[in-house]
Design goal:
The complex is a heterodimer of chains A (about 325) and B (about 850).
Chain A lengths: L3 H16 L12 H33 L2 H7 L2 H35 L4 E7 L4 E6 L5 E5 L1 E5 L4 E7 L4 E3 L8 E3 L5 E5 L5 E6 L12 E7 L1 H12 L8 H12 L29 E2 L4 E2 L2 H14 L13 H13 L2
Parallel strand pairs in A: 1-5, 4-10
Antiparallel strand pairs in A: 1-2, 2-3, 5-8, 6-7, 9-10, 11-12
Helix pairs in contact in A: 2-4, 6-8, 7-8
Chain B lengths: L16 H8 L14 H29 L10 H35 L8 H20 L27 H29 L12 H33 L12 H35 L6 H14 L15 H13 L1 H16 L9 H24 L1 H7 L3 H26 L10 H27 L16 H28 L38 H4 L3 H7 L12 E6 L6 E7 L5 H17 L3 H20 L9 E5 L2 E4 L8 H30 L16 H23 L10 H25 L8 H32 L9 H31 L1
Classes of the chains: A alpha+beta (about 325), B mainly alpha (about 850).
């Protein structure tokens, strides 16, 4: 199980995480941007609770308070004090704090020189294109790997409808709009796994368009990226070899790319290293042989309206081999 | 107006006066009831229809909550879920929230202003029937899989033909676009009604807060709705003919839709909230038995809210990648709007505190107190989402779903239920049950908070909006289950209210419960189908409190206009600021033309949706024919002379020129048209900023030579001169002036020729609208001009026909004035368009 070792570690982290509830929570920040928003959020929440309590107490006094208090409450000065002066003071304070947080992010995004990852919103998955050390494109999908402690520039695009890229633990969301490129610089503070999801309604299977963010130690990240840049591994077993044959003979390569083979399609997700990802179908399924087989046959049930037709023509043997091959693409 | 030593009219009243009044205002019985135009009748129908849509959309909400109760649920399919969340939002916003407040305006305003009816009763009836027919057909699409599924915000490119084939999206664009037109008709009615049909003595500073709120509401509709009407036109034209307004590859921009939509969509929230706040400002003083504290501050706050609300739309677009400088500006504006809301909340608290003895806890007051709490929570979370970095996280999550339900249900539905319990006695033989009412309140209040409070947390834990389902293990399960349970408690409260309604609500015109709350405003005067027996002379803000015998005096006919001196329906028109009586407006009674016009207009729009163009055109022609027939019966002329309304005041029964209500309505319509055009100019310049490379002369054929626009401008100016020259040519009554018809025809002809010349000029350069966004924008100017040219053409033909039949002369000239006003506006818009379309590319290129 040489190849499987990395994945077992990842899976065990993921299953540990699925037990706790913070994997997609904005309240468990683990990226610089999200960490900066967090105290602003709690400050604003505190102010909100205080204002609500004040209104409730004043209402109770107005209703049931002693006559002296009530007659004090019944004048124009309460309106001016509570309705004008108080909001101006509180809101100005919050606004300035908010501007500082926003400006810090904007300044960071305006800097140059970070490694760039281009993420393109698709119906309903994510194409993720890394930039290799020499500027070459490394195409992947449905998962974002980040070097912990190193800022990375995300370029967000779409060639269809509007999507919104949101990994709550890492940063706030930013839309992917056809005809535009939105950029944000993010930085994971420590290795770990979190989840994100499309936040702008994009029709059909909008609810089923998620991804994982895997933050790794920088040296591991570099090694991973070098591996990711390479072609797909050759089949090791007879079954996997048979699976590759099935894959190529049935036109899968019309939509999918497996670098190192003649499969060159760019309509669906790049499958060169699909076996090494955290999930299948954009965060919808675990990544194992069974899941591959199910997806090939039942994908319209799992993710209705997705652009891949269900392939029901395979016999048991072909399907098993195909699933084994795909699973082996680490 | 000076105070009178004695009441305007003396006792005893002449025999037969009351009978004459009753005869004039008689409500048709049986099936003819649908031809009625009395505001009480159509008001109840209007409120009832809006409430029906609230129930229907609420049921869709329950289906969604049931689907989301547990993770990975398969109860509702993906496509159907996408349809019902779209229809839920669309129905709640367009078919419930705006119509129901407009309906309350139709129902309550004439009573609060002691007017016999709104100034254009058939226009209200038209708007209501159009809305009912259009709304029901729109909603029914959900039953046969034809409902739109692009979300109530309908963002392109998702809603373009490529990603939304089928007619679903067209039902939204044409159906809702049509209902917006009905909302605008209502707004015109409300503006003219509040400014011109107040009772003598009710200066603006004595106007009930609800009337203020409705006035600002209508003004906001006038500015905001045209933006979304333009947006729906652009999107429907792109879907049908491929003019690329929103397609990035051909110079369009999906964000243009968002700007136009939210320029309407954000004020929309305040359009809904302001009238509700106005209602609260009426109920609180009654329950406190004390005048509203801070009346003037509240008026300022209402105006301020209306003003600020147009500067916030970008806060729905914080995550679209807009530069941080603009983000800062819109963030500040979004927070500033909290101030006017704060003023109102503290005014209500101050009024409650000022209560004589203690604030009365009735069902309406419970709903008002519930509103104060919920709205405060919605307000503070509103400040949170106005902070840009927080919005980066919570935008498009359930946090926002929680926030706006707090604002909208808290800010509008709770006041609405307070209104039901408070005002139903004015329209029913019975009050609603105070005992059931308390149950309704507590079920709704608890159910609401249990449903929506956990959504704040779900959103923070990462749950996005508009998702049909969610996976297990993200910590959202319990929160969603609680929300679902809460939604059923909320629904139980609403169901109990419906039961109460069935048990106790017995609509009546003249046998309603008299002033059960001992309130101070005029809607609690005793009424019949004619509204009040006589129109009171008002000397304070709470006339029933400050003029203790007012109800008896009014009922005895001792105030103004105690009868029906012209033999028909009429009310007093007063000056807009200090409410001095100016003239008597003669109003139409029951009729079929407005009903036929509304039903066939709705049919025309809906048939276009399914591309049945030929039948749609036939329906449109029938509808326009009905409108012409309807208009033919108006403009009575000064035949009835002057009438005595009391206190020695003699008023004319006909008015033309700037004092006339028709003139005011036309001016409001022109403001609506100019809002539409300003939205167009914005769109033109916006797309130029985004895609200057497709603009002429670089990216498109050269503009036609300068001779074209100059010639077109010459035609427009010549036509305007012809139209203006007609005015002094109008003959004195009984005489003829043969030059009038040719002059009006010449004016209309010039306008049509100018329109065609402009079109021909661009066609001759080889520019085509589907080519790129520049071409689309150039031809869009002609589409907008076409609407006006068409309307001017019909009005001109109508004026000529009136002249030829002896119904247009120097005195009786409202028909001409309306045509001329619209003509001058059309001419101005076309001239401005020439400068923009021909001048701008030459300057910028």
């Amino acid at each position: 199980m040489r190849r499987g070792a990395g994945r077992v570690v990842l899976l065990s982290i993921a299953s540990a995480l699925s037990g706790c509830s913070g994997v997609q929570s904005a309240l468990s920040p683990s990226g610089v941007e999200a960490l900066r928003i967090d105290p602003l959020f709690w400050t604003a929440t505190g102010v909100s609770v205080a204002v609500t309590l004040m209104v409730v107490v004043l209402m109770a006094l107005a209703l049931y308070g002693p006559l002296r208090w009530r007659s004090w409450l019944g004048g124009d000065r309460v309106i001016i004090g509570g309705g004008v002066v108080l909001p101006i003071v509180v809101l100005t304070g919050l606004f300035i704090y908010g501007l500082f947080v926003m400006q810090a992010g904007a300044v960071r995004s305006a800097r140059e020189g970070e490694a760039t990852v281009t993420i393109i919103g698709k119906l309903w998955w994510w194409e993720v294109v890394y930039q290799g050390p020499d500027g070459e494109e490394i195409v992947s999908a449905n998962e974002l790997r980040l070097p912990a402690g190193r800022p990375v520039r995300l370029r967000l695009e779409s060639d269809n409808v509007i999507h919104s890229f949101w990994a709550p633990q890492i940063a706030g969301k930013l839309d992917m709009i056809p005809g535009r490129t939105n950029e944000v610089v993010v930085e994971a503070t420590a290795p770990g796994i979190s989840r994100g999801q499309c936040a702008e309604y994009c029709g059909g299977a909008h609810a089923l368009m998620a991804f994982y963010v895997v933050a790794m130690a920088p040296d591991e990240y570099d090694a991973w990226l070098a591996r990711e840049a390479g072609p797909a591994p050759e089949p090791l077993t007879e079954g996997e070899a048979r699976g590759r044959q099935v894959f190529l003979e049935n036109g899968c390569g019309g939509c999918h790319q497996v670098r190192g083979t003649e499969a060159r399609g760019r309509i669906g997700p790049d499958l060169t290293h699909v076996g090494s990802r955290m999930s299948l179908a954009a965060g919808m399924m675990p990544n194992d042989v069974d899941a591959f087989a199910r997806w090939i046959v039942e994908n319209q049930h799992i993710k209705p309206e997705n652009k891949m037709p269900p392939f029901r023509q395979f016999g048991e043997e072909e399907l098993t081999a195909l699933a084994a091959y795909l699973d082996s693409l680490e | 107006m000076a105070k009178f030593k004695e009441l305007p009219n003396k006792l005893p009243r002449p025999p037969g006066e009351l009978q004459e009044l009753e005869r004039a205002w008689k409500i048709p019985g049986g099936f003819r009831l649908i031809s009625a135009v009395n505001n009480q009748v159509i008001g109840i129908l209007y409120v009832g229809a809006a409430f029906l849509f609230f129930i229907l959309a609420g049921i869709l909400g329950l289906i969604m909550r049931t689907q989301l109760a547990v993770p990975e649920n398969d109860l509702v399919g993906q496509d159907f879920y996408n349809q019902i969340f779209t229809v839920h939002g669309t129905t709640m916003m367009f078919l419930f929230a705006v119509p129901v407040v407009e309906a309350l305006g139709v129902m309550l305003l004439p009573q609060m202003l002691a007017a016999r009816d709104l100034p254009f009763p058939r226009l209200s009836a038209f708007a209501i029937w159009a809305y009912i027919v259009g709304g029901l057909v729109f909603f029914s699409t959900v039953f046969y899989d034809l409902a739109p599924k692009g979300g109530w915000f309908m963002y392109p490119p998702l809603t373009l033909k490529e990603y939304s084939p089928g007619d679903n999206a067209d039902f939204w664009l044409l159906g809702i676009g049509f209902i917006e037109i009905s909302a605008i008709a209502g707004a015109i009615e409300i503006i003219v009604g509040t400014l011109r049909t107040r009772p003598p003595g009710m200066s603006l500073t004595r106007m009930p807060i609800f009337a203020w709120a409705m006035l600002i509401f209508a003004a906001m509709i006038m500015i905001a709705f045209p933006a979304v009407i333009l947006a729906t036109m652009l999107l429907e034209i792109e879907r049908s003919f491929g003019w690329p307004f929103f397609t990035a590859e051909r110079g369009g921009d999906p964000l243009l839709w968002q700007h136009l939509f939210w320029f309407f969509g954000h004020p929309e929230v305040y359009i809904i909230f302001l009238p509700a706040a106005g209602l609260v400002s009426m109920i609180v003083p009654t329950m406190a038995r004390h005048p509203l504290v801070g009346y003037r501050l509240i008026v300022v706050a209402l105006i301020g809210t209306g003003f600020f609300s147009f500067g916030l739309w970008v806060h729905h677009m914080f995550t679209t990648g807009i530069p941080s400088l603009s983000l800062g500006f819109f963030s500040a504006a979004s927070m500033a709007v909290a101030i006017p809301s704060g003023i109102q909340v503290f005014s209500w608290i101050a009024t409650i505190a000022s209560s004589k003895e203690r604030f009365r806890i009735t069902t309406p007051s419970l709903f008002v107190l519930g509103f104060l709490f919920i709205f405060t929570v919605g307000g503070v979370t509103g400040v949170m989402v106005a902070l840009v970095p927080i919005d980066f996280q919570v935008h498009d999550t359930y946090f926002v779903v929680a926030h706006f339900h707090y604002v909208l249900i808290g800010g509008m539905v709770f006041p609405l239920f307070a209104t039901f319990y408070y005002w139903i006695p004015a329209f029913s033989r019975n009050m609603l049950s105070e005992r059931l009412g308390r149950w309704v309140f507590w079920l709704m209040f608890i159910g609401f908070n249990v449903t929506f409070f956990p959504m704040h947390m779900a959103g923070l834990l990462g749950m996005p909006r508009r998702v049909r389902t969610y996976p297990d293990g993200l910590g959202w399960n319990a929160l969603n289950m609680v929300s679902t349970v809460g939604s059923y408690i909320l629904a139980a409260g609403v169901a109990l209210f419906v039961i109460d309604l069935f048990l106790r609500f017995r609509p009546t015109i003249d046998k309603s419960v008299d002033d059960p709350w001992k309130a101070g405003t005029l809607e609690w005067l005793p009424t019949g189908a004619y509204s009040t027996r006589s129109i009171p002379f008002v000397t304070s803000r709470d006339p029933l409190w400050d003029q203790p015998n007012l109800a008896r005096e009014v009922e005895e006919g001792r105030h103004f206009l105690p009868g029906a001196p012209t033999g028909g329906r009429e009310t007093i028109v007063t000056s807009p600021v200090d409410a001095r009586p100016q003239y008597i407006i003669r109003m139409p009674g029951p009729g079929w033309s407005q009903l036929v016009a509304a039903v066939f207009m709705a049919a025309a729009f809906l048939l276009l949706t399914i591309k049945a163009v030929a039948i749609a055109l036939v329906c449109a022609v029938i509808s326009i024919g009905a409108c012409i027939f309807w208009g033919w019966k108006l403009d009575h002329g000064p035949g009835k002379g002057e009438v005595d309304i009391g206190a020695g005041i003699k008023l004319p029964t006909y008015m033309a020129g700037p004092k006339s209500h028709a003139w005011w309505a036309m001016v409001v319509l022109m403001l609506v048209a100019s809002s539409l055009y300003i939205a167009y100019v914005f769109s033109y310049l916006y797309l130029w900023i985004v895609s200057p490379e497709v603009w002429a002369p670089r990216g498109s054929p050269d503009l036609p030579g300068a001779g074209w626009p100059i010639g077109t401008a010459f035609l427009v100016i010549a036509g305007t001169i012809a139209m203006a020259l007609t005015r002094p040519m109008l003959p004195i009554p009984g005489r003829r002036e043969p030059a009038v018809p040719p002059l009006i025809a010449l004016a209309a002809g010039c306008l049509v020729a100018a329109f065609l010349a402009e079109l021909w000029g661009h066609l001759s350069t080889g520019l085509r609208p589907a080519e790129n966004s520049y071409g689309a924008m150039v031809y869009m100017a002609s589409v907008l001009n076409f609407q006006l040219v068409f309307a001017c053409f019909i009005l001109a033909a109508f004026a000529i026909a009136r002249y030829l039949t002896g119904r247009l002369d120097r005195e009786r000239r409202v028909t001409y004035e309306n045509a001329a006003l619209l003509y001058y506006y059309a001419a101005a818009q076309m001239l401005f368009g020439l400068v923009l379309v021909h001048g701008f590319p030459r300057l910028a290129g």
